[in-house]
Design brief:
The protein is of the alpha/beta class and 338 residues long. It contains 17 helices and 8 strands. The protein binds hypoxanthine (HPA) and zinc ion.
């Protein structure tokens, strides 16, 4: 008997390349950490939290997400947050996770690299040995803050650069073009780090060009608005620069009105290296498997499309080539027997 769609997608080895660890903070954990750390939340009950998760746009989400992250204070908090995400991702068939974190959100709360980095890293190492999931950290700069703050953050991260996979750019997009962050991205690249940036989520296709040309990024996070510009699509196809798309996030934040109108399938068919990811799963309505399933149903994706999306995710990851080859070989077997 043919496997269910759910089992088929779960069993595909895949990489998650666009998830913000702050966006994996589930309401239950938010309450538990607030109690443990003596922090008063603006919500009295879990239902009140869920009611607050109704977003008009990116900014209304970011305000709620950054406020929630204020409960994260100790090394143990960061370890528990990362462990919960990695368990959940493993259950969804994720073999490799490249995870964003926003250091400025924590340092603005008086919590330093010496607190969150050991917490994240101990969870990553333990989950690698206990669950087999391979994961790495991408440090994002908040684009609503000036480049000077990003440069200070890069300096503060210096003792931990060996433990970072790359740098990224997130937060409020409109009015904050990638070009503004050229200096800090040059520095990161010189230090041997990979580079990615959010672009074309709410911002125009011009911001995707700017991320490619001024920041030299290897992947674009979201890139929905790239579809407005045929020359840009040609550039993405020719260069093989992947898009890390997050359909349920786009729906939750009003980037698309209906999932049925998402351009992910059209981009895939045009030859763009598209991937499916979760972005902020505790806030946006789903983890990576939910994103694959909802997108498959809304856009009528075939099993061949789903296998392509999973293989794109592995190819688009920054994992060592030998690991990618092993996951792709396994994917070919699952795809042929599923
Ligand atoms: N866009 C920008 N910044 C973010 C996002 C996003 O989707 N999620 C968390 N920070
Ligand atoms: Zn994001």
């Amino acid at each position: 008997m043919a496997t269910s769609l759910d089992d088929f997608v779960r069993n595909l080895p895949k990489a998650e390349l666009h998830v913000h660890i702050e966006g994996t903070l589930e309401p239950e954990m938010m309450f538990a950490l607030a109690t443990r750390n003596g922090i008063t939340l603006p919500y009295a009950t879990l239902d009140e939290v869920r009611e607050a998760y109704s977003f008009a746009d990116l900014q209304s989400f970011l305000d709620v997400c950054y406020a929630g992250a204020a409960v994260l204070r100790t090394e143990r908090d960061f370890d528990e947050l990362m462990t919960a995400y990695l368990r959940r991702a493993t259950a969804d068939g994720v073999r490799r996770a490249e995870i964003f974190f926003d250091p400025q959100t924590y340092t603005n709360n008086g919590v330093g690299f010496d607190v969150f980095m050991p917490g994240f890293l101990s969870a990553i190492e333990r989950c690698h040995s206990d669950l087999g999931i391979d994961s790495a950290l991408i440090m994002c700069f908040l684009r609503h803050l000036p480049v000077e703050s990003a440069l200070d953050t890069f300096e503060a991260a210096e003792p931990y650069l060996e433990r970072l996979l790359g740098v990224g750019l997130d937060s409020s997009e409109l009015g904050h073009p990638p070009r503004d962050f050229e200096l800090v991205f040059d520095r990161a690249r010189a230090a041997g780090l990979h580079t990615v940036a959010h672009a074309g989520e709410e911002g125009p296709a011009a911001y995707v060009w700017s991320a490619l040309d001024h920041l030299g990024v290897e992947r674009i996070d979201h890139g929905v608005r790239a579809a407005d510009d045929d020359a840009l699509i040609a550039r993405l196809v020719d260069s093989g620069v992947p898009l890390t798309m997050c359909p349920l996030s786009n729906l939750a934040l009003g980037v698309v009105g209906r999932l049925e109108d998402h351009n992910l399938k059209a981009m895939l068919d045009r030859g763009v290296k598209v991937t499916i990811n979760s972005d902020d799963p505790a806030y946006d309505g789903g983890y990576i498997l939910d994103n694959y399933i909802a997108t498959a149903q809304a856009l009528d994706l075939s099993r061949t499309d789903l296998v392509r999306l999973a293989s794109n995710s592995i190819e688009a990851s920054f994992a060592p080539e030998a690991d990618k080859a092993a996951w792709l070989a396994e994917l070919a077997v699952v795809a042929s027997t599923g």
